[in-house]
Design a protein that fits this description.
With 428 residues, this protein is an all-alpha fold. The protein contains 17 helices and no strands. Helices cover 80% and strands 0% of the residues. Helix 11 packs antiparallel against helix 16. The protein is globular and about 60 Å long.
Length: 428
């Protein structure tokens, strides 16, 4: 049994390596596009719109991807998602070879790529359950977050340097090449990744989607935990969308990439800790404490224009995220039957990440038309809050971060008082 478990974990590591490389490539493109669009338009709203288009399709379609992951070979789903997603980047590259495309064309390219990510994510998450034992879930979750953190840790630093020597077209070519590596990693795993479930009558998409929803709501704590995660992703969406407009008014592109990468070292530290030592029970308590720390450090990111302080606060904020995600992941995964994992993760994906979608939709408007005007010279808070936070372009975003961080702390205080979430540790 021990050898079999080690063999399964080795196969997981092959898949994980491919997704890690893909995540780094996606991070290069995300950083480069954010800088490109902001420098072209000068507005946070444009950056937010591109981010929304890159994210929304994969979220809205994730339930369908979840049904497909339970119907078909999950390896095939991952390969199809990777390859077709690359076509959106090829489209962007073609447009940029012809000149500077308008924002709407950039949105079209990233949206097309995002559509096929919806095939990849539920299949990948369900595959983890297929391959691993319950004891390996937390360790695997830490490693998955470690791979995902690369887009915040390594990618901004690399992209910031690359943009000093080459343009965005070269960055897109690098990202496109990572999809080939990912597909080869999936193919290298010989075992068919579709779980061997008992045969059953094929049902309609609508029926299977409903089964996924029924699975989710049948365990009350899972649904409530998903809602909590959606609130967290709402505030995370502000950080992802507005970090560039926060810093670029007083620093350059390379420094921006360095600060983002240094901040994301925290996610690396947290993920490595969980990957090496795991978390031994008390997931609900660890979740609440981690949320509290994340909220405090989120607020501190917006407190000043001192780059060292921002990087340190960002590092501590990102260090808390792997603990939040791992605790939620394990509590959910333990309480959902294996044969329903694909559908359930599809539904959970769209619900938990609706916060991102909402944030991407409103962040630019709030920054450009509400918070930044408050702290410009002559703004309503110029002579009060401006004395502490400073005034000028981007300082209103700092105020928005402080408010968001305090609201996350409130969520952290509420979580331990929800009995159904605490009960997830006993249910199985």
């Amino acid at each position: 049994m021990g050898k079999q478990n080690n063999k399964s974990f080795s196969k997981f590591l092959v898949l994980w390596t491919g997704e890690w490389i893909s995540s780094m490539g996606s991070g290069l493109t995300a950083f480069a596009l954010g800088v490109y669009v902001y420098q072209m338009t000068g507005t946070a709203a444009s950056v937010a719109l591109v981010t929304l288009c890159a994210f929304l399709p994969s979220i809205l379609l994730s339930p369908i991807g979840g049904v497909l992951a339970d119907r078909f070979d999950r390896r095939l789903m991952m390969i199809t998602g990777d390859l077709c997603s690359a076509f959106g980047l090829v489209f962007l590259l073609f447009l940029m070879l012809l000149g500077d495309p308008p924002v709407w064309q950039i949105c079209l390219g990233v949206a097309f790529s995002s559509i096929f990510v919806s095939l990849l994510e539920p299949a990948y998450k369900a595959t983890i359950t297929d391959l691993l034992t319950e004891e390996q879930f937390a360790k695997a979750s830490g490693l998955v977050q470690l791979a995902a953190s690369s887009k915040y840790l390594l990618s901004p630093l690399i992209a910031g340097v690359l943009l000093g020597y080459m343009d965005i077209k070269a960055v897109l070519i690098i990202d496109i090449s990572t999809f080939v590596v990912t597909v080869l990693a999936v193919l290298a795993v010989k075992k068919n990744l579709q779980a061997e479930f008992p045969a059953k009558t094929r049902q309609s998409f609508a029926r299977e989607l409903k089964e996924g929803w029924d699975t989710l709501v049948s365990v009350k704590g899972v649904l409530q935990l998903t809602v909590i995660l959606s609130l967290v992703t709402f505030f995370m969406g502000f950080l992802q969308t507005l970090f560039t407009p926060l810093l670029l008014p007083f620093t350059d592109t390379q420094t921006l990439g360095t600060v983002e990468s240094v901040s994301a070292i925290g996610m690396l530290i947290g993920s490595l800790f969980i990957g090496m030592f795991s978390i031994k029970g008390q997931y609900a308590k660890v979740l609440a404490v981690s949320l509290g720390f994340a909220g405090v450090f989120f607020a501190l990111v917006g407190l000043t224009t001192n780059l060292y302080f921002i990087a340190a606060a960002g590092l501590l904020f990102f260090a808390a995220l792997p603990f939040i995600n791992t605790c939620a992941d394990v509590l959910i995964r333990k309480n959902i039957a294996a044969e329903a994992q694909g559908r359930a993760w599809g539904i959970i994906g769209i619900l938990s990440q609706l916060g991102y979608v909402t944030a991407y939709a409103v962040a630019g408007v709030l920054a450009d038309h509400v918070f930044n005007p408050l702290l410009r010279s002559g703004g309503s808070l110029d002579s009060s809050v401006g004395k502490v936070l400073g005034t000028g372009e981007g300082r209103g975003i700092g105020l928005l971060f402080i408010v968001s961080g305090l609201l996350i702390v409130i969520v952290a205080v509420i979580v331990p008082r929800i009995k159904s979430i605490r009960a997830l540790e006993q249910q199985h």
